[in-house]
Structures are given as C-alpha cells and as structure tokens.
Write a structure and sequence with these properties.
Length: about 70
C-alpha cells in the first residue's frame, strides 16, 4: 500500500508540471492581452503595467513561466 501511494505521489509531479505548462501556453496563445481582459478597457496604463509586472508578463516567456510560478502567493 505504501509503495502504491508513493508511486502515485511521484506521478503527480509530471502531471502538475504539464498542466501548469499547458495553462501558461494557453494564456499566451489566446488573442488579446490577458491583463487588459482582467482589468477592463477603462484601466489606467499604470494599473496595467503594475499587474503585468506582478504576473511576470513583462518578462520573456520562458523566464516568466518559471519566475511567476515561484512567486505565487
């Protein structure tokens, strides 16, 4: 039973990484700006820049993927 649980726990790691990568890729494939969609059209440029920085969308895609996942709250 312990072996089964240990194996299942180890198998969740690649599944979680795959799901996170898929979601991150879909965010960047969807047309439009995700920050504008979250804040709406009436958001100030300062608010857009601040949220883009907090989400890591102002960095390169590869570094944004790994940096934003390590900075989640």
């Amino acid at each position: 039973m312990v072996h089964f649980l240990f194996r299942r726990l180890l198998l969740t790691i690649p599944v979680l990484l795959g799901v996170a990568t898929l979601v991150f890729s879909l965010i960047h494939l969807v047309p439009g700006d995700p920050v504008q969609a979250m804040l709406g059209d009436s958001a100030s440029p300062r608010d857009v820049a601040e949220l883009r920085g907090r989400l890591g969308l102002d960095r390169a895609r590869a570094s944004a993927r790994w940096c934003s996942s390590s900075q989640t709250r």
